[in-house]
Amino acid sequence: MQCRRCAKPKMVEIRMTVSDVDLRFLRCVRCEAQHWLSPDGEVPLRAVLDLARVTR
Known about the structure:
Structural class: mainly beta
């Protein structure tokens, strides 16, 4: 996998499920670009936070 910003071929990837949505968090080890992805494409951070919000 290659960073879209700096083209470095080394990315940290963390997979998780949040509110039944499969997500991948990607971070470049060189330029620190960050992306959240679902099977449907890129997910904005605000949407990830909304998924993780606990309703009381």
